[in-house]
Specification:
This protein is mainly alpha-helical. The protein has one domain. It is built from four helices and three strands; from the N terminus they run αββααβα. A hairpin with a 4-residue loop joins strand 1 and strand 2. The protein is elongated.
């Protein structure tokens, strides 16, 4: 069962990465295209700064942010592989989408010195699927950690009650 869940989780994470890269490629090759929907638009935008359009000097980006991103991706990958021994497919999935989202944006920074964004809600800075993957992955990891902590606490309380009963 674990292997099936793991395969589905990894394929879903990879599918999100592929969709993000396809949209980025499409808008890089068709920068004038705008798909206008009721609540949002899909359109080309390049973000030279950090998340949510926060500006950063190019020198700081190349000297500090790119190496830091590589380090964070490496640490997250290490942590993800540690989850395999616990067979925690939720954690593995959330780590995977966070890592792959970061890698997709890292590819943009290396190739174009900017991140390609394309989702525009007009009331929020333009973003992309990779950004969404990172945010959902981090939130998912937080909730997963809380869930596991709660299970550990409940188990400790049960053991404590059993110990009191047997005393």
């Amino acid at each position: 069962m674990f292997k099936t869940k793991l395969l589905i989780a990894n394929l879903a994470a990879l599918l999100f990465l592929v969709i993000d890269r396809l949209f980025k490629n499409f808008f890089l090759n068709n920068p004038e295209t705008i798909w206008d929907f009721i609540l949002f638009k899909l359109q080309f935008w390049q973000n030279p700064g950090l998340a949510f359009g926060l500006d950063i000097a190019p020198m700081v980006m190349s000297i500090f942010l790119l190496p830091l991103t590589f380090l964070i991706v490496a640490l997250l990958t290490w942590e993800m592989f540690k989850q395999y021994k616990y067979k925690d497919t939720n954690a593995i999935f959330f780590f995977a989408i966070t890592i792959l989202g970061a890698i997709s944006n890292l590819i943009d920074r290396i190739l174009y010195q900017k991140v390609v964004d394309y989702i525009n809600f007009n009331f929020w800075p333009i973003f992309n699927l990779a950004d969404t993957m990172i945010v959902i992955g981090i939130i998912g990891l937080m909730f997963n950690t809380l869930r596991i902590s709660q299970k550990i606490k409940e188990k400790a309380e049960e053991e404590e009650e059993e110990e009191e009963i047997s005393s």
